[in-house]
Here is the input.
Amino acid sequence: MEEKIISVGIDIGTSTTQLVFSRLTIENTASAFSIPKISIIEKEVIYKSSIYFTPLISDTEIDGEAVRKIIENDYKKAGIHPKEVDTGAVIITGETARKANASLVLENLSGLAGDFVVATAGPDLEAIIAGKGAGADIYSKSNRSVVVNLDIGGGTTNISVFKDGEIIDTTCIDLGGRLIKLHPDSMKVEYISKKVKRLADHMGILIEVGQVISADKIKKITNRMADLIEEVLGVRKVTEDLKLMLTTKDLKRNYDIDYISFSGGVADCIYGTYLEEKNLIYGDIGVFLGKSIKNLNLNNTFNIYEPTETIRATVVGAGSHTTDISGSTITFSKDIFPLKNIPILKLSVEDEQLGYEALSQVIKEKVSWFGLHNEKQQVALAIKGVKSISFGELKLLAQTIISGMAEIISMEVPLVVIVEHDIAKALGQTIQTYLAYKKDVVCIDAVNVSNGDFIDIGRPLANGRVVPIVIKTLAFGY
Here is the structure.
């Protein structure tokens, strides 16, 4: 039987804030003799807001009240009451996520409606979300290739690398269209980020707030920014300037890139038709930067395609619920449920084919993707696992997970492990043994998840044999 639900997505970025409503049709796609599996069978975007400049009180503080008014006004424009919204997501990204009151703004908005996924996306997680929103994962899978998506916004360029549909690498550079703000008529500098000022200094270009700057100097700065895009993609030699602008670790570049795509606001300046129009259309350097990147001739090295989404790649069109039941071989140390809104870190098939020592390091690295600007965040580890596993291999796998998830284990949160194959009971018990039963452990199986998903785990059913699972998929509006 079909059911229709309304979902909202809200993205508060460095430059822009936007909202999208979707109507999702969900249906039990399992047979009458199987465990129910609720899936989205249709998604219709029913309202897209205007794209607003993110309101700020200062360089370090978001105007939370103004943001809320924007969102409430669009609810009214869409003719949707908060009580009608079943689910959704509020994502705060880019430089905005570093603002002093970002968490308070999120808490304020999460009460608007429904059962929200609420997350401050760190730069690596934002790269994954934007890459998926742009469809890079699907393009990579359908073309069996390595695809790099560069999401160039107002404050950052978030880069995600997908191979055969799986995320294999991410990075973030402090390059964006609003890192220099200019008065459209006078060319007077109204704002410049500290890193871009240092980059200009390295070039011998003096730029100060209140100073009138020439278009030629702006072009020289954005041309250097574009050069850094080539450096991170491996087209030219890496310089100290790239190290300056990196927000996280650099790309590994131990793979051959087949395709690249651009999303984010500046992408519209790369693909758009108005590149020859008024350069300061937005009172910033976005169009200059778009031109500089377009002039790189990256198509001499890579296949470039335009994604399904550009400026709306990160806005979440729907936080959809896919309800399922865990397998019957689960482990949990005590009834600590419900657990809600835990982001999922899923290992790729290639990851799981590594030796256990190498796999431990991979897990540690990927756990760091979910860091929130020097803050730790709970993460659920998802693995495919092995159907028939020996006791010796089981112990090695348990030790590998404990080593790789050391940062999570050090937190006052449960260790959550999700396995596709039915080995959760034995694996969970082995992990508990190695941790001397001093840590809450939840290990569940027969659940299929993806990177970018969030998981809720409800209270046990059937005398503790199964737990209800809600997978919240970030379904993007396009």
